[in-house]
Amino acid sequence: MVEGLFYLLLFPGLAFQVTCGLVFEWADRKLLARFQRRVGPRWYQPLADLVKLFSKEDMLPTGASDWAATILPLVSLASVLTAGLYVPIAGFTPFSFEGDLIVILFFMGVPTMAYYLVGMSSVGIYSILGGARSLLQYFSYEVPLLLAFSGPAVLSGSWSVSGILEAQTELGPFFLFQPVGFGLAVVGLIGKLKRDPLDIPKAKSEVVAGSLTEFSGPKLALWHLVMDIQAIIGIFLLINLFFGAPVGAAPWIGALIFGGEVLLMIFILSAASSLFARLRIDQLAGLGWRVLVPAGIIQLLFVILMGV
Amino acid sequence: MAKKNGLLFALVDALFSRPETVRYPFGPVSLPEGFRGAIEFDAECCIGCGLCVRDCPANALELIRESREVYQLRYFPTRCAFCGQCQSTCARGAISHSNHIVPSTANPDAISVVLKDTSGGRLD
Amino acid sequence: MTKNIIPVGPQHPLLKEPISVNIEVSGEDVLGGSLRIGYVHRGIERLAQERTYVQNVHLIERICGICSHVHTTTYCYAVEALLGIEIPPKAQYIRALMCELERIHSHLLWIGILAKHIGLEMVFMHSWHNREVVLDIMEELSGGRVSHAANLIGGVRFDMDAEHDQMVRRQLRKLEDQLFGVLDAISTDTTIKARTKGVAPITAEQIRQYCVVGPVARASGVDVDMRRDNPLPPYDKLDFNVVTYPDGDAWARTIVRVDETRESLKLCEKILDQMPEGPVTTRARRKVPAGETVIRSEAPRGEVFYYLRSDGSEYPARLKIRTPTLAALSLMPVQLSEIRVADIPVVLAGIDLCIACADR
């Protein structure tokens, strides 16, 4: 019982994931700033932002659905935290079972639907546009993402992330065997996290903040937490599926390597954010269905047929 | 590829360069020599012609004149636009801009500087 | 599909200055827009009638922050034309140098704004970082980064000696090294091209109908540039290329400004090479005789038109200013049909709005 509470609340549960989410936000903002020749925020900035937002007034415009705006961020937060419980951290996970990859992907999809619903339930043209665009974007990146994540599962013959890790300790890291799948997974992750160049639902110059335009105070803090944790859990999942865990090393070496891989992924995401202009939604739909999905299918067929 | 070389090169170059942020006021700030700051006045050169008063676009200079020798020149730093017109207008070089930045104040009308007074305080 | 109205402005992340564009959308398609300006109207033309000619130089400078020097230059040429004096050649060249530097920094600012609005914030920061070099040059020469106060009636306020010349050349060389990577990257980048190619094309007929000038006109193939067609001295002694592109879409507007930046850099070098020695001011009477004159010059955004009438008193009788953004704004509702919501930033940025100029 105590052990269960420890896993749920401390590691790899609530406290660990919130801390990782805040560290991810800091690293991302710092890297983006350094790319732009700026200094960037100090390490406690995301925590300070969270505290500040929790202390602000909580208000919504008249006509917006209050209960939807309260329930949806809480449900999203619960979903990503639950998804994070099943993602191995440097090979360690207390709750793995066969099929947990599908559970993780399901729980990671809840915030996206919640973002759409909260946009539709809010008042104002920016929220509605943001919500509609987020659903359109979901249709364009989700299929390539699922195809990309299916590759390692098929290759290792198991739908559990721990099983995929074990297969990688035998065969080697999967990104070597499925580079196209790795690329698709990165693109899909950028789309899921609604980051530049796929931040179409919350493009600052078109739809001021998308679904969250009318939010402020604690609800906005919850949404920021959801996005940060979603990002870091997505990165953990990507690393587990494509980089694997180091073989037979001491736990602290494994943790160091894991941390290094996380930093590399954050660097890749931030660099992609800086190097590409935002796509239009029709360009994204075209790219998704004309380029990404065929590439994903071909990669999956290759994996199945060649057994490699 | 040319495009990626350009932006990618700029990104990597920025990552390994010092940031451009000037940590004012904790770091050094360089002002050029022609910087138009607060007014410096040389009372001996001034003859009280009043051309600077006429040319100031912000009405920051005031001349109260009783006779040819008795006058008072007053300057309002909070109205000043730091344009340099008075410096260009004055044929004697009595008025010029220094390098000092004028700080803000909460009560702008209370501040005025008497630049030259030949009346002995009578014209206040 | 229901119709909605996106209120862009007066405050919006897209705008650096307040205008109000109510854009009617249906889904992701834009149906049209209605424009409302006047939020920063300060009555400059009326204020100019209550100040002397000398005081007006500094009032005119505060019409706009980006094209401040061009406004004062045009005004000073107008007053000097009424006075019947000609300023020394060195002053003419210094005025032209500051004009070209202003054109460079205005276009760099614009490239940054366009990149920021289509999501490339890194290009925004890098382009403005390069712009700092130009602002440093202007600060060394005139004492101010944005408010140069460079012009007097009868010449310029500061002189340039050999040391200044060396400094300007050194900084321009440094700018060239830093800049051509970013400019080349922008002109060949596929994502920027994908966002701007084919967006909101304007035909040359529409340009002539709405009297649009500047880079927007040159991007539709209309070859008009006041520096060549109606040159103020010393542009009649300088040779340079006028950049035009036939397409008329947002991509052409981007490329025209990128190429114009390169041209202006070369033109700055030529101005420095040809700069003569001599005084920088000449004596100008304060009493302006009665008369009227029209002076036109090329601001970074197009043709600036000044009409000045004097009735012999110490205040101007009428000062009329027509700025290039005003004409481009009238074209905006036309551009706002047949595009998508995602193209709104590209269209609004392509006009290079300077509302402070337009509202005066």
Which characteristics define this entry?
heterotrimer, A: mainly alpha, C: 360 residues, Cytochrome-c3 Hydrogenase, chain B, 14 helices, 9 strands, 50% helix
Plain-language structure description:
The complex is a heterotrimer of chains A (308), B (124) and C (360). Chain A is globular, with a radius of gyration of 19 Å. Chain A has twelve helices and no strands. In chain A, 72% of the residues lie in helices and 0% in strands. By secondary structure, chain B is α+β, with helices and mostly antiparallel strands. Chain C is an alpha+beta fold and 360 residues long. Chain C has one domain: Cytochrome-c3 Hydrogenase, chain B, CATH 1.10.645.10. In chain C, helix 4 runs antiparallel to helix 5, helix 4 runs antiparallel to helix 11 and helix 4 runs antiparallel to helix 13. Chain C is globular, with a radius of gyration of 20 Å. The chains are: A mainly alpha (308), B alpha+beta (124), C alpha+beta (360). At the A-C interface, helix 6 and helix 12 of A face strand 1, helix 4, helix 5 and helix 7 of C.
Uncertain regions spanning at least 5 consecutive residues of chain A: none
Termini distance of chain A? 42 Å
**How many H/I helices of chain A?**
12
CATH superfamily of chain C: Cytochrome-c3 Hydrogenase, chain B
Number of structurally distinct domains of chain A? 1
Looking at the structure, what is the overall shape of chain C? globular
N-to-C terminal Cα separation of chain C, in Å?
40 Å
Number of domains of chain C: 1
